[in-house]
Structures are given as C-alpha cells and as structure tokens.
Amino acid sequence: MLTKKMMKWFRDVRKGTLASNKILPRLQKQISQTNNSIDDIKDSLEKIEKETEKRLEQLDEKIGIRLKKIERKIPKKPKASPPKISFSRLPTNNIYCPVCEKGKVGWVSAYPSHNPKFRMAVVLFCNYCGSGHVPDASKLISGYYEKEYAERDRKDRDIDPEVYFKSGSSPGLSNYFDRANEQVGNLAKLGAEFNVVLDYGSGPGYFLYACKAQQPYAVELDSYSNKYLEYLGAQKLSSEALPESFFDVIVASHVVEHFIAEALIENLKGMLKSLKPGGMLLVEVPNGGHSYMLLHARQDPHTIFFTPQGIRCALELAGASEVSYYARAKNDGEYHPQPIYKSSEKKEVAKKSKAQEFESTLRGGLTVVVKKTQK
C-alpha cells in the first residue's frame, strides 16, 4: 500500500508533466519564430553587403576619375635626362658584338646614368649594328631585380590586386595596360592563340590580364609581383627550366634589354624552343640607339641598348622566322651630333621601305614578332 508521501510525489510528477506538455508547444513556436528572425537578419545583411560592395565600386571609379583630373592639374616635375654620351674609339680588337655577332666593338662610353652604381660601368658599341652592351654585367645587376628594382623603380606594388587590375584604379598604370592591350591586338591580327601563354619578365602580369590566357605562366624575379600573379592564377617558372614545345605565345616586353649580353642569344633560343610549332614570340625593347640618337629617358638598369637593326639581328641569329616588326611610338627623337652608326637600311630615297622606316626610327618601343617554324 502506497504511503501518503509517495502519493503526493506521484501527484507532483503528474502535474509537472502536464505543465511541460503545455509549455513545450509554446517553446517550439518561439524557437521557430527566432529561426525565422535569424533568416530575415541574414537576408538583410546580404543585401547590405551587396549594396556596400556596389557603393565601394562606384566610389573607386569616382576616386579614379578625380585622381586623373588632379594629375592633369599638378605640374609634373621634369625628369633629369641621362648624361649625354661621348664616344671614344677603341683600338682594333677581336671582341665581337653579342647582339649581332657580325660586327666588332669599335667604340666605348660611360654608362648614361646619374646613378653612381651604373655610372661606373662602361658601354661597348658595335661597328655593324650600332647596338651597345655592358660587358659582363652580372656583377652590376646581381640581386638587383629580386627586391631593389620594385622598391626603387616600381612604387605601385602595395596596391591590392583586385584594385590594381580594375580600370581607372591608378592613372599611372594606364600606359602599361595600354601597351599590353596593343600587343594583344597585334598578335591577334597575326593569328596568335592565347591558350597557353608565357609572360617572360611579367611584372604584375599586364599581358596575361589583357590576353585572358586560359593557362597563364610567368617568369619574374621581382618578389613584390607574386601576389598579382597569384591573383591571375599564373604559374611561375624559372627561365632556366622552360618546357619544350609548350606555349602558344611568349611575350618578352621590356625585359630583353635587361639580359646579360653574353647570354642574349642563348636566352632567345630557349624561348623559341619553348614555343609550340607555329607559336609566336613577341619581343619589345626600348630604342637604345645611343650610337645615332639622343635619348632623354632614364636608361638604368638596362644592360643592352638595341638599335632597330640590332634587335632584328639578334632574333635572326637565334633562329627565329620573322613575322612582323614596328616601332610603337612617334618618330620625334633627335639625332646625335656625332653619331658613330649608320643603319644599313638608311638610304636617301624618296620613299622608304618598311625596313628603312623601322631601322631609322628615332624612338620606340621596338617590337618584333617571330614565329617558330613548323616541324
């Protein structure tokens, strides 16, 4: 027989169970309402995030436009021209030009720079193609491009990649993107395919961005460019280990003039070897024709100074089949008052041929497009 105490305990439990059965539906309803409120908050936050991103993009565009307007109004500080070159004739020697390998070096000058490091170097000039080179420049530029080049010469590497590649993000970058777009357009006209593309000396990857390569690759020493290449999905390669017959297009834009002159032809041969049969190599270099013209732009850290004739000779020597060549700038330079070179194509005729026009140009970029012969 149950005691009174036990009976009381059963009654209390029963009351509690009944109370719980009444409370539970209310709790479930409150939980459901809370979940709905959380979903509504999430939706609102997503809308706010999208609206914020849109406003930031609009703000970036406005800032870019205003920066361009401000840049136009601010008077630019004139850049110091490099020292004018004075030539000294060299005695008869057996030193062949590493650019064309046809002529011998006949003249020497001090390096045209105000930078003490480069000013101590000398430039030797060819008596055939007129190109100049710094002999044994490996010591001069050892380690220079890994870090010092970006810190001293490229002060744009602190920009976020997403902003960097956005149109109008920085007025100072427009020249690089314009050049890359022009190169892409000219290659496309020649029938180039942009599937597997190598940007040799890529910097942040202007050309890879412009051509929208399906498989982008890059050769670049500057460590500050890595984040931009990663953003573009580009795989970095070593210049000494390029795959054979692999690329549809290789672009070496404003990099070949930084090569060690004695290794120039072998480096060009390596690029050609990496092209698929029928693949194209575009090389663009600044006009380095100190031997016949006055150049006012900064020259360091260039180690090879190509004339139009010189860059064509080098690519021919490397075994390339020439497709196209042109100068990508107005022909408004000045002749040197005491030139030591006269182009083999420079003749006094009423109408100049394409080669004569190219080889007598007074400015540049000098661009040559070559093709790997089908095998």
TrEMBL record:
The keyword Coiled coil applies. InterPro entries: SAM-dependent_MTases_sf. It comes from the Bacteria. Gene3D superfamilies: Vaccinia Virus protein VP39. Residues 31-62 form a coiled coil. It comes from Billgrantia endophytica. Keywords: Coiled coil. This is Methyltransferase type 11 domain-containing protein.
